[in-house]
Design a protein that fits this description.
The complex is a heterodimer of chains A (about 70) and B (about 190).
Chain A: H1 2-20, H2 28-48
Helix pairs in contact in A: 1-2
Chain B: H1 2-28, E1 36-37, E2 40-46, E3 49-51, E4 62-64, E5 72-79, E6 86-94, E7 97-107, E8 115-121, E9 131-141, E10 144-154, H2 162-182
Parallel strand pairs in B: 4-10
Antiparallel strand pairs in B: 1-10, 2-3, 2-5, 5-8, 6-7, 6-9, 9-10
The chains are: A mainly alpha (about 70), B alpha+beta (about 190).
Chain lengths: ~70, ~190
């Protein structure tokens, strides 16, 4: 969710920056295309980004295991 | 369990295909350009450079210098067909919309004058606007009509303007959001 929203907004701000820096005007392609692209890339990034991958936490000690259901 | 995994894989495949198509659109789409259509012609001289409607791509825009306070722009234009009962206007394209910035209403022009020239003094409000804009213009008369597009680059420091500074801050914050979204979290058991 965070990746999708961040990607969408990053695309929108990117389109404005491209226009402000004289690279590309704010046409339909940049106004809609870049946010849509950002949304998709944000989703993929949130799923596969190799940042901060941690080892799985160790299992709980046996005495803290929940009692078996009767 | 297997069904969920298949569904997820299918969704990811679709997202990849859609992302690829959009990326192609953004990277390969030609620059918006149409130049001039119709029996008209015109030029404007800015900072010693004479521009016409061929300056219509992002790589080849009409350049207005950063130091443009009180800039005077000599211009001339003409139409080769009957110019009676004419009207026209100029607009700035923003996404799918065109914001009108100047227009001339219906003039009967009984003498059929077909040319105009003069000196345009740039409005002081333009001093604080920077960036690349797509302009569209039209002129309709009894003898025919003309449509033109041009790119205009208003030079200046984007970070000194509200839209530029706001977009830069927004982009930085959303980049932080992207990094945060990419960090894997330990899931509680």
């Amino acid at each position: 969710m965070l990746g999708a929203v961040s990607g969408l907004l990053l695309g929108a701000f990117g389109a404005i920056l491209l226009q402000q820096y004289g690279v590309w005007p704010l046409d339909s392609l940049s106004l809609f295309g870049l946010p849509a692209l950002g949304l998709i890339l944000g989703l993929l990034w949130a799923r596969w980004a190799p940042l901060g991958r941690s080892e799985p936490p160790p299992p709980l000690p046996p005495e803290r295991e929940p009692p078996p259901a009767a | 369990m297997l069904e969920t995994r298949d569904r997820r894989r299918r969704a990811i495949r679709w997202a990849l295909v859609a992302g690829g198509v959009l990326l192609l659109l953004v990277l390969v789409a030609p620059a918006a350009s149409a130049g001039l259509r119709g029996p008209c012609s015109g030029t404007a001289t800015i900072d010693g450079v004479t521009y016409d409607a061929s300056f219509d791509t992002p790589a080849n825009p009409i350049v207005v210098p950063a130091d443009r306070a009180g800039l005077q722009i000599p211009y001339s234009g003409e139409i080769t067909v009957a110019n009676t009962a004419y009207r026209g206007g100029v607009g700035v394209k923003l996404g799918p919309f065109t914001v009108p910035v100047a227009e001339w209403g219906v003039e009967s022009n009984p003498d059929d004058r077909r040319g105009a020239q003069g000196v345009y003094r740039l409005d002081d409000r333009m001093d604080d606007i920077v960036g690349l804009y797509q302009l569209t213009a039209f002129h309709e008369a009894d003898g025919g009509e003309c449509r033109a597009t041009a790119m205009i680059l208003l030079e200046g420091n984007p970070l000194a303007t509200a839209p530029g500074a706001g977009a830069a801050v927004g982009a930085a914050l959303t980049l932080i959001g992207m990094v945060a979204a990419g960090i894997k979290k330990k899931l509680p058991l």
